[in-house]
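User: Could you write out the 3D structure of this protein bound to nicotinamide-adenine-dinucleotide? I've included everything you need below.
Assistant: Certainly. Input first, then the structure.
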Amino acid sequence: MVVKPRIRGFICTTAHPVGCMKNVQDQIQHVTSRPSIEGASNALVVGCSTGYGLASRVTVAFGCRANTLGISLEKEPDKQRTGSAGWYNNLAFDREAFKNDLFAKTINGDAFSTEIKHQAIDVIRNEMAPIDLIVYSLASPVRIHPRSGEAFRSSIKPIGKPLQSRTLTLDVLRDKCDVADIDLEPASNTEIASTIAVMGGEDWGMWIEELRNAQVLADSCKTIAYTYLGNELTEPIYRGGTLGRAKEDLDRVRDVLNSDADSAGIEALVAVLKAVVTQASTAIPVVPLYFSILFKIMKEHGTHEDCIAHMYRLFGEQVYGTPRRLDDSMRIRMDNFELDPDIQSRVKAIWETIDSSNARDLADIAGFRSDFLKLFGFGRPDVNYDEDVDPQFIVP
Ligand code: NAD
C-alpha cells in the first residue's frame, strides 16, 4: 500500500515504515560517528520506541555497546493498516543492533503492569547479564494501577487559577498555521492526583523494586528518569500545573531510591531535558508556540539539539561523565542551552509580538512541522512516498 500521513491536530494515525527505519539509522549514525562512551553494559529502557527513550537506547547501545531490553506500547500493523511509528522504530532498532552484534530485545506491552515487569525480568535472567542502567522514559495519558486495577487518566491543566495563553495550531498537511488564544480551567484535586498517578514516580519505583527483588540488578547500577521545567511562559501549564506536580514526584522517588538501604548500589538520577518535538510534547497546549519560537532562536545561536544529540550529550557528559551540572534539587540540568538568558530574553520578546500574520517570520514553523512529520517517518527527501510498501514491513 501507499502510505500517506493522516493527521488531525497533532495526531497522526499512520506511519511510514521506511521513513521510520531511516530515522533510526540516522540516530545510530549520529552516535557511531562520535567517540564511544564508557558506560552501560546491560540496559533496560522503559519507553524505548520514540522520543527521548529511543534516543537513549540508541546512545547506550551504539555509544556504550550495551545489550538492551526495551519496553514500549505500540500498535502492530496488519495487512490494511500501518503500525505506529514506535512499532517500526523498534523493528529497525532491533535489526540494526543484530547487524552490529548487539543483543536487543523489545517487549510490546503495558509497562505499568506487573506482568510486563515479570516478562522483562525473565528476559534479563535468561538472556542477559544483570542490568546496570534503567532508563525510565514513559509518557502516557493513562495508567491502570497494577495493584488496585483503578484506571487513572492524566490531565494537562493549570493549578489554582484559569490560564489564558496562546498556542500554535498547525494544519500540517495544508501547511497552515495560526496563533490561537486558549483558555484552560484549573485542575480539580482529583485531576491533580490522577496525573501524579500516571506521570509521577510510583511506577519507576515499582520497576526498581521488582528488579531488585528478582536480583537482576548489577552491584553498581544507575537509573534515570526525565523531566522538564521550561520558563515563565510554560510555567502555568507545565511546571506549575498538573504535569509539574507529577514530575516533582520523580524527585521524591529518586530520593527514596538513593537513601533506601535496600537499594544500596543503585544511583537514581533525574535529568531536566530540553524541549523537543515528540508525540507527548505536542499534546501540551502553549508548548508548540513556545517550542517553535525557541527552535528559531536556538538554531540561530547554534545550540539547538534534537533527541539524539541531546541524549548523546546527556550520557557522555553527565550520566557517565563529570562534573555533573546539578541544581539545588539535585537534578541534572540539560536545559542549560534552552535557558540561556540571551536565548530566553529573545524568546520572550518574540512572544509579545507574535501573531498569525508574522508567525512564519518570528518562529521556526517549518522546522516544527518537519520535526512533527518526521516523528511518523514522513517528510524525508530520501523516501519515495508514492511507492508501495508492505505495512507488515521486514527491515532489510
Ligand atoms: P514519547 O511520546 O516520544 O515517548 C513515550 C514512550 O512511552 C513511547 O516509547 C511509548 O511507547 C511509551 N509508552 C507510553 N505508554 C506506555 C505504556 N503503558 N507501556 C509501555 N510503554 C508506554 O515521549 P517523550 O517526549 O520522549 O517523553 C519521554 C520522557 O521525556 C517523559 O518523561 C517526558 O516528560 C520527558 N521529557 C520530554 C521533553 C520533550 O520536550 N519531549 C522534555 C523534557 C522531558
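The chain has a mean pLDDT of 96.
User: Perfect, thank you.
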